[in-house]
Design a protein that fits this description.
The chain is an alpha+beta fold. The protein has six helices and four strands, in the order ααβααβαββα. It has a four-stranded mixed beta sheet with strand order 2-1-3-4. β3 and β4 form a beta hairpin.
Length: 149
Amino acid sequence: MVKLSVRTMNKYLVGMVIIVAALLVVGLVISNSTNKEAENNSDTLKWNDNLDQAIQEAKATNKTVFVDLYADWCTYCDEMDKNTFTSPEVKEKLSQNYVLVKIDVDKNPGPSSKYQAYSLPTMLILDSNGNEIKRIVGYQSPEKLLSQI
């Protein structure tokens, strides 16, 4: 049988306390970063992906429809998502005044064909009957988009 001295036992206990404390700190850091991500995501725009449903919602809420036609391979579409649609002013104006629809033209080519949108990004503003009111083509900075919507 192995006998441990009191000194060895104390070192062992101190080591265990340090490990447990470190694990608690790591857990808190992970928890805080997860909460911050959830807070940031709650600030994002609420996009529909179904144009017909968005038009129905526009009729019910007396709003117009803002359609973002994009593709995953489109560099400027990605820039719009990262720079323009994250602008607090753009988010506020879009969410207050429009029913939002984001359509991947590769997965759902119908709307781009119907509205003859052949370059990306293309943004359309539609009335509650689906009629085009305005067309915005190409990358738009937050300031430029705000001046057009």
